[in-house]
Amino acid sequence: MTGSAMAKSVNQATQAKAKADAVGQARALAPEVPARIGSTPATKFRGNPEIFGRLVEDHDKHRALLAMIEATAPNDPARKALFEEFVRDVHGHAAAEEQALWSTVMRNPETTEFARHAVGDHHKLDKLMADAAARDITSPGWLTHFATLKDEYLEHILEEETEQFLEAEKVLSEADQRYMRKVFERRKKAEKAAAVIEKKIALKPVA
């Protein structure tokens, strides 16, 4: 095996392990519920030890939680537990991401719009999570509202992983990225612990 082929193989193995570990975090909450997330967008950041790899780790956990929630029956207690974990984890993730990454990236004129778009998506997702939380989770129709949240979240993290992170990386040094991961870890723990599951039905489509 050539050096380049070996490097590629190691990278693929690292990415596969990172994805499996992230999915495992979700599965540990309800081992009996399948977590079929299928293929995920290709990203060079999965398994990266700095800020972007850490964010993708959370994204993969969230992909698994979404798949697991969708796989539950209306009266399955796991549905409520998984949904509440998803909401709290996303709240903590988004707040910490804004503090550790986007607050800095937004100050650079070259990447301001990418940062604004990401933060704007967070606000939209807050409304969709509040709408889903306000509805009867045991109702057969709840998954219809949940599907909107799921689709919007998956689109958001797709854009981050394939566009916004790539642009942000261009204006950050490796030292910046290492430091941002430390900030993210600290802030996510605090933000998730303080997260409140808001409940507010959206009277019109969330834009």
Q: How does this structure look, described?
A:
By secondary structure, this protein is mainly α. It has a single domain (3-194), classed as Four Helix Bundle (Hemerythrin (Met), subunit A) (Up-down Bundle). The protein has helices at 3-27, 51-71, 77-105, 112-134, 142-170, 174-194. The protein is globular. Residues 1-10 have low confidence and may be disordered.
Number of domains: 1
CATH fold group = Four Helix Bundle (Hemerythrin (Met), subunit A)
**CATH architecture field:** Up-down Bundle
Structure annotation, total helices: 6
What is the CATH first-level class name? Mainly Alpha
- Give the biggest sheet: none
Distance between the termini: 51 Å
Secondary structure blueprint with pairings:
Layout: H1 3-27, H2 51-71, H3 77-105, H4 112-134, H5 142-170, H6 174-194
Helix pairs in contact: 1-2, 2-3, 2-5, 3-4, 3-6, 4-5
Descriptors for this entry?
disordered N terminus; Four Helix Bundle (Hemerythrin (Met), subunit A); 207 residues; globular; single chain; mainly alpha
Summarize the structure.
Residues 54-163 form the Hemerythrin-like domain. 71% of the residues lie in helices and 0% in strands.
